Please model this.
Amino acid sequence: MLNENIKKLRKSKGLSQEELAIKLNVVRQTVSKWENGLSVPDSGMLIALADELDTSVSILLGETVMEPMTDDLKSISEKLEVINLQLAKRSRVKVKTIRWIFTSLCAFIVLVFIVLAAIQSSYLRWDYNNPEFAVAGTILHGFEFIFVRLAPLAFIASVIGIVITYKKR
Model:
């Protein structure tokens, strides 16, 4: 809701992300992250943002409030805390997904190596006078040739990726 409100109010004022960023003394990428929901402004920046967009913080956060609240900063900080918790949860899910992809890649590489070891390049003994066997054998040999050289690099990169996703941030 916050990200949509920032974008809508910025556009209604006829400001580009760059112009708004200059007025708030931040970089354009920061405004872009706010509008895409990748981060949220802190409470002080939220107040400055509301001032630049000629609105109240409550409207930025999606509330329609008739009278001003005395604990405005407290409610803002509580809402920001909820938003930050949601962003942190989304980040954890992303890291778990990436870790699962790396683990699956490692398992796939090991499985293919086991299969290649089991067939022991038996296609090399085929009768290559038959065009179908010649094409299939050439494809299998090309795959094995490239896989055996590139798979160890991909395996090492995946293991490093798994280790990095387990590091504390």
Q: What stands out?
A: The radius of gyration is 28 Å.
